[in-house]
Design brief:
One of its GO terms (biological process) is cysteine biosynthetic process via cystathionine. This protein is an alpha/beta fold. Helix content is 37%, strand content 15%. The chain folds into two domains: 242 residues, 3-Layer(aba) Sandwich (Aspartate Aminotransferase, domain 2), CATH 3.40.640.10; 131 residues, Aspartate Aminotransferase, domain 1. The longest helix is centred in the last third of the chain and has 20 residues. The chain binds pyridoxal-5'-phosphate.
Length: 380
Amino acid sequence: MRGFSTNAIHAGQEPDPTTGAVIVPIHASSTFAQDGVGGLRNGYEYSRSANPTRTALQECLAALEGGRHGFAFGSGMGASDVLLRVLLRPGDHIVIPHDAYGGTFRLVDKVLTQWGIEYSTADLGDVHALRAALRPTTKVVWCETPTNPLLGIADIAAVAEASHAGGAKLVVDNTFASPYLQTPLALGADVVLHSTTKYVGGHSDVVGGALVTSDDEVAEQIRFTQNSVGSVPGPFDTWLTLRGAKTLAVRMERHSDNAERVAEMLGAHPAVSQVLYPGLATHPGHEVAAKQMRRFGGMVSFRVAAGREAALAVCAGTELFTLAESLGGVESLIEHPAAMTHASVAGSALEVPDDLVRLSVGIEDVDDLLEDLRGALGRL
Ligand SMILES: *Cc1c(COP(=O)(O)O)cnc(C)c1O
């Protein structure tokens, strides 16, 4: 079996058979010529159903996650929507994390409930809490690890076992870890989801999503539903995502190097009351993270001792860390979850502390990042 980076650079990406182009072309064509009625060349007919640039990305992502089937979407939420339509029917129940990604919570709470889907939230870091949340009608358990923005860790193998024992399929949203750090299918997950907008694309220049599974039946239903509802990415976007994926391994190594240094510095800083990073030995999920992740990634959250106003001041006080939502790009970002990414969950079970700051640590020179954060904390 080939290594991760070899797959990232070559899987699905043979030189173009007609021209020898080393890089997969952007196949900007909505339709494909047929050799006689029904005589498709290489199976391509119409780009909603399949497009060669998209096929290359899908084969690459499937190889990176160690799955048989990959599907690329126009966004992470587009992928979630199609997957949940495949796995759930009216009357079914889904368990989502108590600190699920806000958009996932909204999709389940505001959209799927209109179609007769029931849901519960549970702390998936605690398998007993998951078992207690399962019902006879539970068809899906939705897991994120590390979670956003609290960087909680779930034991994927244990969650898979509990889900399967309860008759449910396990979906893992692997956006925060990326396939370089963690491959959930190998740990028992049935389907892996990505917002490729984040680490897989990696350059904050394209929105996209993906699903990977080795379950042939689920894959066939995803293929049918995706084509039926038209939730597909364009060839330019898939090409950008594929270009980003080639460097995923080197970027994740550097993100992890830099985040470890940032977490260490913050942990020793008097203005910081708590650092949430699974790479720290003091993190409650550290052991599980060390077991299932190659390294600990680029996301670091911390609580500011002086409270909400001080946390807002830190977010406004950095220069290199840009104040913005999203994550996973080469540049460092800072945000205040309670007022920004998680504002919509205020008052719900998913509410986050208002002294919390979330960092997406980029791959700049780490000394510059440390100085920037020290400066903002020092001005409090
Ligand atoms: C961003 C994100 C999503 C949604 O993806 P989009 O590409 O923005 O639609 C889903 N899950 C997680 C963990 C995310 O960070």
